[in-house]
């Protein structure tokens, strides 16, 4: 019985190690992918409108088997899973993409800093 317990524990440790490694990898990938919002804000004035119409602003794929949602702020299109939301999370009125939300947060931060200094 003890040899069976040892093999089960070893297998569980291997599986947990694999899960932990995957979570760490996904965390790093998620962190790196979130930087596209900041890059978009920095490059906003340099865009020339060359992005194909009808494509997701994150993955550049069109409407294949996934629906695209429109940001009410910038009118960009997104696949819900490309920005980490479900279709139920997106209300039909007034939805704003992470880029627009980040821009609003940055603007509010600047306004609050100016108000606190003055």
UniProtKB/TrEMBL annotation:
<dbReference type="InterPro" id="IPR001841">
    <property type="entry name" value="Znf_RING"/>
</dbReference>
<dbReference type="Pfam" id="PF00628">
    <property type="entry name" value="PHD"/>
</dbReference>
<keyword id="KW-0479">Metal-binding</keyword>
<dbReference type="GO" id="GO:0008270">
    <property type="term" value="F:zinc ion binding"/>
</dbReference>
<protein>
    <recommendedName>
        <fullName>PHD-type domain-containing protein</fullName>
    </recommendedName>
</protein>
<dbReference type="InterPro" id="IPR019786">
    <property type="entry name" value="Zinc_finger_PHD-type_CS"/>
</dbReference>
<keyword id="KW-0863">Zinc-finger</keyword>
<dbReference type="InterPro" id="IPR019787">
    <property type="entry name" value="Znf_PHD-finger"/>
</dbReference>
<keyword id="KW-0862">Zinc</keyword>
<dbReference type="InterPro" id="IPR011011">
    <property type="entry name" value="Znf_FYVE_PHD"/>
</dbReference>
<dbReference type="InterPro" id="IPR013083">
    <property type="entry name" value="Znf_RING/FYVE/PHD"/>
</dbReference>
<dbReference type="InterPro" id="IPR001965">
    <property type="entry name" value="Znf_PHD"/>
</dbReference>
<feature type="domain" description="RING-type">
    <location>
        <begin position="56"/>
        <end position="100"/>
    </location>
</feature>
<feature type="domain" description="PHD-type">
    <location>
        <begin position="53"/>
        <end position="103"/>
    </location>
</feature>
């Amino acid at each position: 019985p003890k040899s069976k317990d040892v093999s089960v524990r070893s297998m569980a440790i291997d599986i947990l190690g694999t899960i932990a490694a995957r979570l760490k990898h996904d965390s790093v990938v998620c962190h790196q992918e979130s930087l596209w919002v900041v890059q978009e804000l920095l490059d906003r004035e340099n865009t020339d409108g060359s992005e194909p119409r009808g494509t997701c602003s994150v993955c550049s794929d069109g409407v294949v088997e996934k629906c695209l949602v429109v940001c009410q702020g910038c009118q960009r299109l997104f696949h819900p899973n490309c920005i980490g939301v479900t279709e139920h999370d997106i209300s039909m009125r007034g939805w704003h993409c992470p880029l627009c939300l980040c821009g609003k947060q940055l603007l509010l931060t600047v306004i609050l800093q100016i108000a606190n200094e003055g």
